[in-house]
Write a structure and sequence with these properties.
Strand content: 15-25%
Radius of gyration: 18 Å
Largest sheet: 5 strands, antiparallel
Structural class: alpha+beta
Oligomer: single chain
Shape: globular
Number of strands: 5
Length: 169
């Protein structure tokens, strides 16, 4: 039972780690930690110049997952086309909710943040924190779309942007 779970992720797989987005498993290594031998996924987040070591037995529990299916990607794109839903709550509460959605690793939730914070040129200015959350969500979405479609981030960004712009029309 435990064996099959472990092989869900393999070296060279692209995976989504909730707090950091798309990374690539470079290897699986064993390390002695406090006298115990642990098996770890070594995950590289090239764009962020960061490497993460995740215990293989904890990966699923912390929400690490395979890339979304093309079906989920298209649902995310449909979400982007929707009308922005902005709650009347105070900004600090909304910001907290947006951040939770971004770090959930759930592509649809991330798409909702992009949709809700997207501004057209003629709309009011975004605050610094709004802009940061928007860009974080947009980057997560774009990277996963790129990874699923074969890795071209520029094309993915254009695709996402076209959806957002068409929504405004």
């Amino acid at each position: 039972m435990t064996k099959s779970k472990k092989n869900e992720f393999r070296p060279n797989d692209f995976v989504v780690y909730p707090a950091h987005g798309v990374g690539q498993i470079m290897s699986i290594e064993e390390q002695d930690i406090a006298g115990m031998t642990m098996e770890l996924f070594v995950i590289s987040f090239e764009k962020d110049k960061m490497t993460l070591r995740v215990p293989t037995n904890k990966a699923t529990a912390i929400g690490m997952r395979q890339l979304s299916s093309p079906d989920v990607i298209s649902r995310a794109m449909t979400t982007l086309k929707g009308k922005a839903k902005v709650k009347r709550a105070m900004w600090s509460r909304r910001a907290q909710e947006y951040e939770q959605k971004i770090n959930s690793g759930d592509l649809i939730a991330i798409a909702e943040v992009v949709r809700d914070l997207h501004r057209n040129d003629d709309q009011r200015e975004q605050s610094y924190s709004e802009r940061q959350l928007y860009e974080a969500a947009l980057e997560r979405l774009t990277r996963e779309v790129a990874a699923v479609s074969g890795g071209d981030e520029v094309a993915a960004a254009k695709q996402v942007d076209e959806v957002l712009v068409s929504r405004a029309a």
